[in-house]
Write a structure and sequence with these properties.
The complex is a heterodimer of chains A (about 290) and B (about 425). Chain A has helices at about 5-35, 40-60, 65-85, 95-115, 140-165, 165-175, 175-180, 185-215, 220-235, 240-260, 265-280, and strands at about 130-135, 135-140. Chain A is mostly helical and about 290 residues long. A two-stranded antiparallel ribbon of chain A has the order 1-2. The longest helix of chain A is centred in the N-terminal third of the chain and has 33 residues, at about 5-35. Chain B has helices at about 1-25, 75-95, 115-130, 140-155, 180-195, 210-225, 245-250, 265-275, 290-295, 325-340, 345-365, 370-375; strands at about 40, 65-70, 105-110, 135, 160, 175, 200-205, 230-235, 255-260, 280-285, 305-310, 380, 385-390, 405-410, 410-415. Classes of the chains: A mainly alpha (about 290), B alpha/beta (about 425).
Chain lengths: ~290, ~425
């Protein structure tokens, strides 16, 4: 394989992983915009989505139904997390809310380990183990599913935030909670919706990811780290930014592992994060002003 | 009121989330016969537990305590889980047959959760609180290396179930190992490469002591055998996509690829090799010799070859082979008790526990120093991994004859020689 082919292969597989980081990053952003909280249980939502789908398929639920049901169950988990753990401390500092999400991530991981055991679980690829040739490079068919799902999620969330009343209300809460409340927006309900939406999206990401990477109770944390980097690199709070950031991290990580040294693969994501924070602290697509009240 | 709501609500969360997950959880996926969670589990001496009523005289007196540290949870669980099951089964069998020295045996199993610090704490507890006469395990090379010095200093014999060469090289007088080491595995691979006239290979290994130890052996032995190592790539224990590394390897056009790791990484490597359309043979280490590898890698496991102990292909081992009766008895008992096939790792627990039991019998005492001397004097012990001949210089006791060449065909392990 010549250098061009190698670069193409590395870029394509980097993009496939990068879109997942991007979706996880979007999940971070939705909750951050609504509450100002970084939800450290975000990776666990991804993990739960994958594992729930594995179980549903194991009891002969059709795959398409399993995908939707798994995402809905994870959305319900997000809803419960907000209603029962985050809201009771909503008057307090952001730090205590973040601490609650760390606790929630440990709880969810522990419960998942109890239910599914410590081993990696497998989900069949949506359209078989076909390999798609792109010139000299190769793609798993599942990687197309991953990219396609990411694209749909991005479009759907953009439509939601820009053209629906609920989406606009949620954006209003992000800009100024007090003003939104005065304009008649139910801030509490929007926060609840943000958690459900964020969890559902991450759960869906987990389902499409599992056939490619396998899933186990401990898989959430590394994904959360990369997703968080994606959100920061793209500009915290910016939905499209997270996807751009995720793709960037995925591709550079893959190129770094392939061209420089595979031993430092995970270090590349953090290196990109540091470079971006030095050069452009608000992220690639982030606003240059600090958020109000933070 | 306000304050009590703060306390009650988080509790409700816990219950509600648990409730949802229990509904969503799959009944099939909980491993059989293994209590989850981190607490120690103790196999009660026969005299204490329910009567089984068969076998030799009922053991009596003070129980003989043997410690065990396995990675029952965490990334190394595919190894630790069957080891724990095997150790529990064998302890029961020994007690049914009258115990050791007429005394019941008590195997105290600790879970190191695949973490070195947990292994150190478990070893400390076994040595200082439980005052065991010997320890079997841990499951992984990193955890074994973490407690090696401690067992040596405490004068408690350690019979490790991990395969890293660094465990028994250099030799510590109190530290032994039962798995075939990577030294022997690489020697077996070199034989195969030479027989197939392969001169140029590439390696990909997990970035932990198991992978690094394998890599060191490959570098050393390939050089001696005149085999060129074109590229060597690493992957992390939690890595799930090896495409970048394999793309690099593909670019070098090797005649074979050798992967050194334990699940699930090697399964991702196998999938990546298929994906990139690499057609040269993929050789795995003995670290994947369990059913989980075939399950995770699926189609991609087809045609993968590896050096492995005879246990996973015991049905194909000729009847006149000296290991056959041991393999048959253990594999059948394990299958009957747990309804799953005994893999290499279950076999390691069998070997370790029997070597310790026999050493206590031979020493006529459960004094750790005497047990150590007796373990070192073990010769001709026919186990699942091979025939053990320990000596002052060799604390692994196996030769490369302990390996057979195994190939995966039709989702099954097949003897390929």
């Amino acid at each position: 394989m010549d250098l061009a082919g190698k670069l193409l292969q590395l870029t394509l597989s980097g993009l496939a992983m990068g879109t997942i980081y991007g979706i996880v990053g979007m999940g971070f952003n939705i909750i951050y915009n609504a509450t100002g909280v970084i939800n450290f249980a975000q990776g666990e939502f991804v993990m739960l989505g994958g594992l729930i789908a594995v179980s549903l398929v194991a009891v002969h639920v059709p795959l398409a139904v399993a995908v939707v049901v798994a995402a809905l169950i994870v959305a319900a988990v997000g809803l419960l997390l907000e209603r029962l753990a985050v809201r009771p401390v909503s008057g307090q500092s952001v730090i205590s809310m973040i601490t609650i999400t760390i606790g929630a991530s440990m709880l969810l991981r522990g419960v998942a380990k109890l239910l599914w055991g410590p081993n990696a679980q497998k989900l069949p690829a949506f359209s078989g183990d076909e390999i798609i040739r792109v010139g000299p490079a190769a793609l798993e068919s599942q990687e197309i599913w991953i990219a396609g799902t990411a694209l749909i999620i991005v479009i759907a969330t953009q439509v939601f935030f820009n053209y629906t009343v609920a989406g606009k209300a949620m954006r209003a809460c992000a800009i100024n909670k007090a003003a939104a409340r005065l304009a008649g927006v139910n801030v509490e309900r929007m926060t609840l919706l943000a958690f459900a939406l964020s969890a559902g999206i991450s759960g869906l990401a987990g389902v499409v990811l599992t056939p490619k990477t396998l899933m186990r109770s401990s898989s959430g944390a590394p994904l959360a780290v990369k997703g968080f980097c994606a959100a920061i690199v793209g500009g915290l709070g910016n939905g499209i930014g997270a996807v751009v950031g995720g793709a960037l991290i995925g591709v550079l990580e893959s190129l770094g592992a392939g061209l420089i040294s595979s031993g430092y693969k995970d270090a590349f994501a953090l290196l990109i994060l540091m470079v971006v924070l030095f050069v452009r602290p608000s992220g690639i697509l982030g606003r240059n002003t600090d958020r109000e009240g933070l | 009121m306000f304050h009590s709501a703060r306390v009650v609500l988080p509790l409700l969360v816990t219950l509600a989330v648990l409730g949802i997950l229990v509904v969503a959880g799959c009944p099939k996926s909980t491993p059989q016969g293994t209590p989850q969670g981190g607490g120690p589990s103790v196999v009660p001496p026969a005299g204490v537990g329910p009567e089984t009523g068969t076998g030799g005289a009922k053991p009596s007196g003070e129980p003989i305590k043997i410690g065990a540290i396995f990675s029952v949870t965490g990334p190394t669980a595919p190894l630790g889980e069957p080891e724990k099951m095997a150790a529990e089964m064998i302890a029961e069998q020994i007690n049914e047959k009258g115990g050791i020295l007429g005394r019941p045996v008590e195997v105290i199993i600790e879970d190191d959760k695949s973490e070195n610090t947990e292994a150190v704490m478990a070893a400390k507890k076994l040595i200082e609180t439980e005052k065991v006469c010997a320890i079997i395990g841990p499951s992984g090379t990193p955890a074994t290396m973490a407690i090696k010095q401690m067992c040596q200093d405490a004068g408690v014999p350690l019979v490790s179930c991990a395969a890293g060469r660094t465990i028994t090289d250099p030799v510590f007088s109190y530290v032994f190992a039962v798995p075939q080491t990577d030294l022997l595995a690489v020697a077996k691979i070199v034989d195969w490469l030479k027989a197939n006239k392969i001169k140029k290979v590439a390696s990909i290994y997990v970035a932990n002591p198991f992978g690094e130890s394998g890599q060191q052996q490959m570098e050393k032995q390939f050089k001696e055998a005149g085999i060129e190592l074109l590229a060597s790539e690493k992957f992390g224990g939690e890595d799930t996509d090896m495409t970048p590394q394999l793309t690099n390897i593909k670019g070098k056009n090797p005649e074979a690829i050798i992967c050194w790791g334990t699940n699930p990484g090697p399964a991702s490597v196998a999938k990546g090799v298929k994906k990139l359309g690499i057609t040269v043979p993929l050789i795995q280490s003995h670290g994947v010799a369990n059913a989980k590898f075939i399950e995770l890698a699926g189609e991609a496991a087809e045609g993968v070859m590896l050096p492995a102990g005879r246990l996973i292909v015991w049905q194909s081992v000729p009847d006149d082979h000296q290991q056959k009766p041991v393999l048959k008895e253990f594999a059948e008992a394990f299958k009957a008790k747990y309804d799953r096939d005994a893999d290499t790792f279950a076999g390691h627990a069998y070997d370790a526990l029997h070597i310790v039991a026999k050493a206590i019998e031979a020493a006529g005492s459960d004094d750790p120093a005497k047990v150590r001397d007796a373990i070192e004097a073990t010769t001709g012990f026919v186990g699942t991994a091979g025939v053990f001949n320990y000596s002052a210089e060799d604390h692994n006791g196996l030769t490369k004859d302990a390996f057979v060449w195994v190939k995966i065909e039709g989702g099954q392990w097949k003897l390929a020689e």
